[in-house]
Structure formats: structure tokens, C-alpha cells
Amino acid sequence: TIADIIRTCLGPKSMMKMLLDPMGGIVMTNDGNAILREILFKMLRYVCLFSAGEMLSVAEHFLEQQMHPTVVISAYRKALDDMISTLKKISIPVDTSNRDTMLNIINSSITTKVISRWSSLACNIALDAVKTVQFEENGRKEIDIKKYARVEKIPGGIIEDSCVLRGVMINKDVTHPRMRRYIKNPRIVLLDSSLEYKKGESQTDIEITREEDFTRILQMEEEYIQQLCEDIIQLKPDVVITEKGISDLAQHYLMRANITAIRRVRKTDNNRIAR
């Protein structure tokens, strides 16, 4: 069962697992969450799954003795109440503003992982990343690391080169070589539409009877792109970022207006920048 697979991933003597990914690569890990993600699941927490598997395994013996399932469930609920009561008694308050305390808590979670050799670096990166993405709204703190934190892997270097970037990193280049690459405190326009001529969603017929008609059609396409760019230029941005494409003509107009353009970014990156 899945519980048996991840059983040996828990505790101080957790063992490494060798995974074969769909591309034929080999991944070594003892992180149960990563193993489940590679096998089947994406959202389940592996400790909960392991606990559920163990409880079902224990309950099987009572069901074979013709004990009614409601009796087993009520016993589990009573055990849950007892466990919560015990945890409340032994728990201690934690000051999240105390950096040393938080680092000790994080360190206890990674001592069984491969990264434990660089535990100081990993703990500081994890804590800084969480503090970077957390924000408070209406007296409520929100920390969404899945949505607003991202791990960007760049080949080369050493582990000690790893760091937290207090901003948004997009692994994209500018669309035109003459566009600015370094802009301090930029004014940014985010788009989820393309800056290129949009083809008709359904079949479109155009009847051309003269040679000038074809030239006029091309001219209309250029005028459409020009109008889009003029509308953007009126906003006086320094950077334009879009999730779709940018035509060569649009790049030309934006470059002349001294605007840097980046295309085909992920929607999640757009949301991070907007935040």
C-alpha cells in the first residue's frame, strides 16, 4: 500500500527512495510529499495519508470480528478527543517574531533530509521566503507559499549561492535587443491579451477583386497593432508584460517609445507581479 511505501520516510532513520520520473531521470529523496507527488497525488499530506492507512489496517481486525463500523468510528473519535486534549496540555506558545525560535523549529523538520548538511542555509532561506510572501489583511495573516513563492533552478554554481529574491523572478528575455534591461522603480503594465493581429475565431472569407485590396488588408492589420500600442503608450509605462505574444511591429512601436516588453509569461507570474 501507499502507507507502506512512505512508512520508512518518517522519523530520524528515514531512508532514501529512488524514483524514476516520466522522462527517465532518477530522483533520490526521502520526502514523502515528493514521493506521493511523483506517484499519484498532488494535494494530500503524506503524514495524514500514512495515519489513515494505519487506522484502516488496525480497524480491519475489528471488522472481521463482526464489530459494527459505527463502534469503531466512535472509538476513533474518542481517541482523537483524548489526543487533542493531551496536545493542548503539552503545547507551548511560540513567538513567531523571534527568529532564533523559528529557526530551531524549521531545523527540526529538515534534520532527516539530505539538505541537513546545509541546515543553517536552508532554515534561513525557508524563513525569509515565508516572511517575504506573508501579508496581513483585516487583522488576518495570510501565507500562501504555493501561489506566491517559487523555486527557480539555474544550472551552475554551488548550493551556497542559493538565496531568497525579495521580488518576482521571471526567466524571460526582452523581445527586442534595443530595449532597456535595467530599470529602477519601473511603471509596469500587465496584460493577459496579445499585441498582435488576432485571427478570426471562426472561418472568415475575404473577397479580393483588386490588387489594392490585398494591400489594404495588410494596412488594416498594421493600423490595428499601431492603435493597440498607442493606447498602451498613453499610459506611459516602463515595462509591458503579457501572457500572450507580441508581434514584430508591436515590438518596434514599443521600442521607439522606450518601453521594454516581455511576452509569454505564466499567469501565476502575472499574479505575483500584480500583488
Q: Would you mind describing this structure in some detail?
A:
This protein is mainly alpha-helical and 275 residues long. It has three domains: 2-90, no CATH class; 99-161, no CATH class; 188-274, GroEL (3-Layer(bba) Sandwich). Helices cover 46% and strands 9% of the residues. It has ten helices and seven strands. Strands 5-6-7 form a three-stranded parallel sheet, sandwiched between helices. Helix 8 (211-233) links the parallel strand 5 and strand 6 (239-242). Helix 5 (99-110) crosses helix 6 (119-133) and helix 8 (211-233) packs across helix 9. The longest helix is centred in the C-terminal third of the chain and has 23 residues, at 211-233. The model has no long low-confidence stretch (mean pLDDT 82).
